[in-house]
């Protein structure tokens, strides 16, 4: 596939057009245009629940990585900073929202007081195992160093090896004229009811015709005060979001990339100036940048198998929250007995089905126990 794409690129003279574009692109100054933010309920629905999904997924990984698939609340609380939950929300309260994911039991501390302890339900265990299997199947295994070396150093870089998603789509759609002159246009769509003034429409049309600079090449020659440089910034984050599973990320995550990507101050303003390419959702008390072209309504255009697992996990969270509000889950006297049997099954499955290497291959961060537990669960 890549050889075919590179062949098309050479036939259309894509590499030469990039070099020729450098001659005139400095002439384009930065136009001061501000576009209003308009709420997109569909993409807000896509973002909603991501915070709880992430936190629950991390907790599942932490509990699963423990020797007995069960941890007391004080152990889980050590990882609270990585969950992204509101400061006024108790961790135990969050966990108890989803009784079909986390099973609660108790043990007595040295003072005789009951201490909450949480393990995973069979449904959560099954989804987590599916996730690990998917990761294991997609692990890169084409390069193997027989002498146990774990790293490679790149001595020479070939520019033809890097092709952005926008370039790939242009090749696949055979946009010969755009490829030759190097002025690739980004896919654009607006929220229903978005009113774009004539002046803004004309600016956007001209902006799309500007030279496109690949995020994989050195752009130090570009003047940061030009629209061409801004188009390069848009191209960088267009590519970055395409590399993520959900084609979205919190705005604060990209704010930390200014230095490594050699970007100017306030570079995230590009998200606000181009609402037809990016949507900024303000759900869950944060700002999340979503790539518009990656979604067709509520569904992603291309769905990674891990995204399917996360959607099933999100459905499980929603069902557990709803059932809990209906009083479906009731505690019984035999909770600890049932929990003990379930733990034995979990440990046996981990021992028989997964190697230590596989257990660490989780989509969510995993953590080892900080110390041995005195059979708390």
From TrEMBL:
The PORR domain is annotated at 138-320
Q: Which Pfam families does the annotation name?
A: PORR
Which branch of life, at top level? Eukaryota
GO terms assigned for molecular function: RNA binding
Signal peptide positions (record): none
Annotated region (Disordered) at: 352-377
Q: What is the designated name of this protein? A: PORR domain-containing protein
Q: Which organism is it from?
A: Cajanus cajan (Pigeon pea)
Organism classification: Eukaryota, Viridiplantae, Streptophyta, Embryophyta, Tracheophyta
């Amino acid at each position: 596939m890549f050889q075919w794409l590179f062949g098309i690129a050479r036939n259309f003279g894509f590499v030469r057009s990039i070099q020729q574009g450098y001659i005139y692109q400095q002439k384009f100054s930065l136009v001061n245009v501000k576009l209003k933010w308009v709420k997109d309920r569909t993409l807000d629905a896509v973002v909603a629940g991501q915070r709880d999904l992430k936190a629950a997924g991390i907790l599942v990984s932490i509990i699963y990585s423990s020797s007995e698939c069960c941890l007391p609340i004080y152990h889980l609380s050590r990882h609270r900073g990585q969950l992204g939950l509101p400061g006024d929300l108790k961790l135990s309260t969050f966990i108890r929202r989803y009784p079909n994911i986390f099973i609660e039991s108790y043990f007595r501390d040295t003072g005789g007081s009951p201490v909450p302890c949480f393990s995973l339900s069979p449904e959560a265990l099954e989804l987590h195992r599916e996730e690990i299997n998917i990761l294991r199947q997609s692990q890169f295994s084409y390069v193997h160093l027989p002498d146990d070396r774990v790293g490679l150093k790149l001595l020479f870089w070939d520019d033809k090896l890097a092709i952005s998603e926008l370039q790939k789509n242009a090749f696949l759609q055979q946009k010969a004229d755009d490829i030759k002159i190097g002025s690739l246009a980004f896919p654009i769509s607006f929220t229903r009811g978005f009113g774009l003034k004539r002046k803004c429409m004309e600016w956007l049309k001209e902006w799309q015709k500007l030279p496109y600079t690949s995020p994989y090449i050195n752009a130090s020659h570009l003047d940061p005060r030009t629209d061409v440089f801004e188009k390069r910034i848009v191209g960088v984050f267009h590519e970055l979001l395409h590399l993520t599973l959900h084609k979205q990320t919190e705005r604060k995550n990209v704010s930390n990339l200014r230095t490594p990507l050699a970007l100017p101050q306030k570079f995230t303003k590009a998200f606000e100036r181009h609402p037809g390419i990016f949507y900024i959702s303000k759900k869950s008390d944060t700002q999340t940048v979503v790539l518009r072209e990656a979604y067709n309504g509520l569904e992603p255009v291309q769905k990674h198998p891990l995204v399917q697992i996360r959607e099933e996990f999100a459905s499980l969270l929603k069902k557990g929250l709803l059932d809990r509000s209906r009083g479906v889950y009731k505690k019984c006297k035999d909770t600890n007995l049932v929990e003990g049997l379930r733990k034995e099954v979990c440990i046996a499955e981990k021992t028989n089905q997964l190697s230590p290497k596989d257990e660490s291959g989780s989509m969510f961060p995993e953590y080892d126990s900080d110390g041995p537990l005195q059979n708390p669960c």
